[in-house]
Protein: Flagellar FlbD family protein
Organism: Anaerocolumna cellulosilytica
Amino acid sequence: MINITKMNDVNITVNADLIETIEEIPDTVITLTNGKKILVKESRQEVINLVKCYKKELFSRFLKED
């Protein structure tokens, strides 16, 4: 899950596994696998970095348990 900010300054949490595409047109639009689109304040690269950090944290837990 990643925390992002909608254009109306509302913070929301999105399941990173449901992200299908991230576009900057010029604002950032996240399209989920169910077709829902979310307009956010973060840049495309910031969203990508949030997803990377989330995945890294998630998978590091599995490595520590083994």
